[in-house]
Amino acid sequence: MPIVVIVLGVVLLLILMMGFKLNGFLSLIIVSLAVGIGEGIPITKVIASIENGMGSTLGSLALVVGLGAILGKLMAEGGGAQKIANTLINKFGRKNVQIAIVVTGFIVGIALFYEVGLVLLIPLVFTLAATADIPLIYIGLPMTAALSVTHGFLPPHPGATAVVSVYKADIGLTLLYGILVGIPVVILAGPVFATYAKRFSRGVPENLYKAQAYKEEELPGFWISLFTALIPVILMALATVAKLTLPENSNIRSVLSFIGDPVMALLIAVIIAIFTFGLNRGKKINEVMKIAEAAISSIAMILLIIGGGGAFKQVLIDSGVGKYIADVVKQSNFSPLFLAWLIAAALRIAQGSATVAAITAAGIMAPIVAASNIRPELMVLATGAGSLIFSHVNDPGFWMFKEFFNLTIGETFATWSIMETIISVAGLIGVLFLNMLI
Q1: pLDDT of 390-425, one tens digit each?
Q2: Rounded alpha-carbon distances, angstroms, from residue 424 to 97, 302, 324, 382, 394
């Protein structure tokens, strides 16, 4: 049966990554070769299938991920993210500090990779906990919940954007639906769960606590920082609204669709960020370009892993396995949304990487979108939700959280791992509910 080959391929992927500690990209390429041959694709055509899969996946996606990385790096280096965080925390005050940190994490998380956002915001969490005498977990957990939700649900993050490409979903609608589902999920997994989890709080780690990287007078303005960070979201949202409300021959719709394309929206944001977070902060253009180069070099392996996932997807399509799976699922009682979540969740628990789990699950489930009436945007969110479940010792994020919040392994399971599971399950419930409404 074709499904047996897929199962063996996934097992091989896990053995290579977990047992032999092989790089995710190399593991995906080896598994793509093995599955392709096992499914009966001629040896001379397997390589072509892998090349086509990588090329089609990394086409526009490389631009989106690259530009997003540059924007995030400029935002971090220019002090924009710190200014947004400082202002929101000051405005909301100590009593509502959780709301401030959630809003900060959500805004910053849209523009930054999870790891970058965590490293950037953790000094602010330390400062707040130390100066206001607030339990560290009480404010740290809502921040990480917001970052995690934006990482798993919202483009232009690499995993979410890659899954959008695989399912051929509308990126603007995915962003809109992701925000609708993500807000209540963040509240539940962040401020609500933190009320219970704060009992695990320890003191701020002395070796990690540092003063603010920038003095207040060195930071850019709040509104210009916020505007620059949200430019991609604003432009993509406008394009989506135009598609839903204006006729196809409308000039306004054409213009908004052009500037709201993810590549154009991020390019516009990067150009503006070069001024707002670079030149206007006293940096020379060559300094700004070094920041951009550093951003690109940091995502090279992420792009290769995404490309490897695309290769695996293409092998499944070319072998005809996708059609077989589609026929099986159509005869089952499982919702494609639940099945996508379940596959991604199983892969996440087994091998740790949310990005690999999401892309691999999307490759397996892609044919279902064409064979069903399920909105591909909701499939993106269901897959993303599954890819976040129960992070544990095979996920670098687990260890980052443990060390930053000075916890034992058991306490990390009781806080971080449970928070990620709440996000995953609540995200699935939100997607299923949204599916009933639209």
Answers
A1: 998 778 788 889 888 989 889 999 999 999 999 999
A2: 25, 22, 28, 9, 17
